[in-house]
Amino acid sequence: MSRVERELDLARRDVTSSAVLVLDLDHFKRVNDEHGHLAGDEVLRAVGAAVTAEIRDRDVAGRFGGEEFLVFLGGLRGRPPSCVAAARDAAERIRRRVRALEVQVSGDSGSQPLRGLSVSIGVSWCSPGAAALPDLLARADEALYVAKRAGRNRVEVHEGEAEHRSPTSPG
């Protein structure tokens, strides 16, 4: 999170837009229940590699807890809708790559491929210098739950721009 804060500060200084993606593996409990926690760990590593392969070197990605991942996209050029489209495109690339994964997991009958993984992704964005990280996270999380309720394996972008709140602002 500290690296994301630093990148958000850099985006403010550079007067560029930013976006946050919150990813949640769909039905991950089923992977652990059916294949075991070691297989679950393999899946998490494979998803982490898939996420990293679809973002730029300057972007930040990491596990956000359980089966959730966070991606920060800084330095997005242009104003909405172009920066929003860039964030959505990155999220869609990640979603498609996760869907195409084939993870070799060990089971009772030896190694077997695990296919059909999916991820739901919530996206939030802000114009240059406009938002604090907690606002971006909250909005991306709201969009994630819209994606989950809409059937999973999809990307949803929060409708509005995250708003700036000074440390003394309420809420």
From TrEMBL:
UniProt domain GGDEF: residue ranges: 16-160
UniProt-listed SUPFAM superfamilies: Nucleotide cyclase
Database matches in Pfam families: GGDEF (PF00990)
One GO MF term: diguanylate cyclase activity
Keywords for the protein's UniProt record, in alphabetical order: Nucleotidyltransferase, Transferase
UniProt-listed Enzyme Commission number(s): 2.7.7.65
KW Ribonucleoprotein (keyword) present: no
GO terms under cellular component: plasma membrane
Record-level GO BP terms: cell adhesion involved in single-species biofilm formation; negative regulation of bacterial-type flagellum-dependent cell motility
Name used for this protein in its record: Diguanylate cyclase DosC
